[in-house]
Fold:
Amino acid sequence: MSKLQENVLQECKDDLLDNLSDYDILYLIDFLWKESVLNDTLKERLVKHKMRRTKVRELVEFLPKRGVIAFDKLCEALVCKDLKKDYIAEKLRNTEERLLALK
Structure:
C-alpha cells in the first residue's frame, strides 16, 4: 500500500468506524484473508476482539503493512454484493484522487 493510500485510510477511518456493522467487519476480515491480504495470525487477532470499533481500528492499522494490493482489495470487498458498502469504497477512491491531485 502506498503512503498516499495509508493517508486515505487514516482520513476515512471514521467512515469505516461509523458505517461498518459487526457482520460487515467480519466479512471484510474473511474476504481479505481469502485474498491473502491477511494471514492466519492477523485474522485470528482481529476476530478475537469483542468490540467492533477495535476490529476496525486494528484493520486500518494492519492494512498499510499488507502489501500493494491491500487498498484495492479493501475497496473490492466493500462493493461486493454481500456488503453493498459502495459509498464507503467511493469515499476512499475519491479521497485518494483528491490527495493525489494535491501532490
About this structure: The chain is about 75% helix and 0% strand.
